[in-house]
From TrEMBL, chains A, B:
It comes from the Bacteria. Its cofactor is Zn(2+). This is NAD(P)-dependent alcohol dehydrogenase. SMART domains: PKS_ER (SM00829). One of its GO terms (molecular function) is alcohol dehydrogenase (NADP+) activity. Gene3D superfamilies: Medium-chain alcohol dehydrogenases, catalytic domain, NAD(P)-binding Rossmann-like Domain. CDD domains: CAD1 (cd05283). Keywords: Metal-binding, Oxidoreductase, Zinc. Belongs to the zinc-containing alcohol dehydrogenase family. The keyword DNA damage does not apply. InterPro entries: ADH-like_C (IPR013149), ADH-like_N (IPR013154), ADH_Zn_CS (IPR002328), CAD-like (IPR047109), ER (IPR020843), GroES-like_sf (IPR011032), NAD(P)-bd_dom_sf (IPR036291). It comes from Flavobacterium gawalongense. The lineage of its organism: Bacteria, Pseudomonadati, Bacteroidota, Flavobacteriia, Flavobacteriales.
Length: 347, 347
């Protein structure tokens, strides 16, 4: 077994603290990499606190993981020592169901293995995430990361990036479309970058007027303050797509009214309470309310390659691991521009 | 003005009763027809009772109207005296917005004129529906009805028919698809007929085991009792589409779990309270919750022609106008197979 340092939460009430644990040995198809950076996702906080239920403790969070390969198994073909590598939200899946066969491992019908707070396909071994110095992952779930980009700023692409890239590709958002991005946080700022790169006219919808300058700097064409009734009215029936990154409760009926006929409202955030949706909000204008979850392995690699080609990375603020609680407090207040990334050398 | 007999409700608290009123004179582009049959739609009941708000009294309900043309204006080209004709939920729209231009008059951006409980495009004249002996409609909003079909059984096609036909065409439901029809009432039984005609494998989901024989007779391939947990479990992750015709409150999360990855849940009923939808119900499996509203004029004519070609009509129970309240009582109890149609000769 591989002795490993990490930051873990021991139960739903304790805080993250240093923890020594062991990783599995590098098997024939495994890649071990030295974790250099790990992004801090809002879902880390939800899972630490067991907001969604079913959390497994002790828990080492983190699923926006990048680093350098330090060991490869004898059968590994895709990686060699010294390569930059990344792992996102999945470290395994059944590989046999129709979704896995199609590269939609995020929808594995037998349940994918989450990078942390998950269970391996042996149905008993817990998984530990990226707030750690090293990780061992089957090569099929390790992604190539370009050396052309700032490695730390690549980390958030593994979750925030693919979560916004995938639905835009699936619903073919691009030229000629008016896209609203609801919420300018970790996901939202990536959605703006992709929306602009794909050729859409991008409007940021935000409760915070202070974010307008940033939105424009990120490439957005317009900015609308959502609690200004007049501003909202000016975009009624305006958008082909809304990409909704908000994980706090919010009134979807209001946003559905901003869609054109046949418009699509895409949810990628997970509020703690159900949405309340009036049938008339969908029926009037034949609108769609849809969900999307991260992306499969082939699409995640495609996204990383696209980002390398187009120079797209996340806007980040680097933190010391010991400041993780302060980072969470700031995330809750929305005080992050736009993703915290832990420098794992500080562990 | 044309003296007209009808059945009207005078305010939200009174019952339907005989009422004499006047229709507009037949203008150059108008068609007047003798109403022979009018279907009874669940929405008649909602609007009489002002369940959705904004009802206009006195109200003559009815938007599944068929009869024979008795007068045409000097410029009318599409109809001649003696033709069978029908009118559905719309009698006018702005005709100039992008949706009207595309034949999506049901999504008229300036507001279509509902056949009853609506306001003409002059923004002041109320409209009166089909519980009446005659009606005058602009020829663009009058539909040709085949003389090959039972005229009384055609009436419900004008609302129940197009409401189910349109989303099936829009989402291209057909061969190779597993379609669930939720609720076997006026809309549901038409959805089964169209689903089967389009080549889908059709399963009826119903709370009422008594409806199984009818479902199979209508052409459904399978029947699942929705309050039998075991039966429901057997169809988890099973359907490409659910066509949801239920207008009573129901748990969408349960039904979303019956969809395959990328499945689509289509709402055509309007429950009085909002749906409660967990984000995870959509995100897990990239599912869509969508709405659809009747159909535009070109598609409604296409549907009527399709029905004439394929011998599709509604299953009806003919009633005398004086029994309309009894019919409503039975509709509320779900005791209708599958659409009441008023013989307007009884007026």
């Amino acid at each position: 077994m591989i002795p490993t340092k990490g930051y873990a939460v021991q139960d739903a009430k304790t805080d993250l603290a240093p923890w020594n644990f062991e990783r599995r040995e590098v098997g024939p198809n495994d890649v071990q990499f030295d974790i250099q950076f790990c992004g801090v996702c809002h879902s880390d906080l939800h899972q630490i606190k067991d907001d969604w239920g079913g959390s497994i403790y002790p828990m080492v969070p983190g699923h926006e993981i990048v680093g350098k390969v330090i060991k490869v198994g004898s059968h590994v073909k895709k990686f060699k020592i010294g390569d930059f590598a990344g792992t996102g939200c999945l470290v395994d899946s059944c590989r046999t169901c129709e979704n896995c066969q199609e590269g939609l491992e995020q929808f594995c019908l037998n349940g994918f293995t989450a990078t942390y707070n998950g269970i391996e396909q042996d149905k008993k071994t817990p998984t530990y995430g990226g707030y750690s110095n090293t990780i061992v992952v089957h090569e099929d779930f390790v992604l190539h990361v370009s050396d052309k980009l700032d490695l730390a700023a690549v980390a958030p692409l593994l979750c925030a990036g693919i979560t916004t890239y995938s639905p835009m590709k699936h619903w073919k958002i691009g030229k000629g479309h008016k896209l609203a991005v609801l919420g300018l946080g970790g996901l939202g700022h990536m959605a703006v970058k992709f929306g602009v790169a794909f050729g859409a006219e991008v409007t940021v919808l935000s409760t915070s007027p202070k974010k307008e300058a940033d939105a424009i700097k990120l490439g957005a064409h317009k900015f609308v303050v959502t609690n200004d009734a007049e501003q909202l009215k000016s975009v009624a029936g305006n958008f082909n797509f809304i990409l909704d990154t908000v994980s706090a409760p919010h009134d979807l009926n209001l946003y559905l009214s901003l869609l054109k006929t046949d418009g699509v409202h895409i949810c990628v955030g997970v509020p703690p309470t159900p949405y309340e949706v009036h049938a008339f909000s969908l029926i009037g204008g034949r609108k769609s309310l849809v969900g999307s979850l991260i992306g499969g392995l082939p699409e995640t690699q495609e996204m990383l390659d696209y980002c390398a080609e187009h120079g797209i990375v996340s806007e980040i603020e680097m933190i010391h691991i010991k400041n993780i609680h302060n980072a969470y407090d700031r995330m809750i207040k929305g005080d992050v521009r736009y993703r915290f990334v832990i420098d794992m050398a500080t562990l």
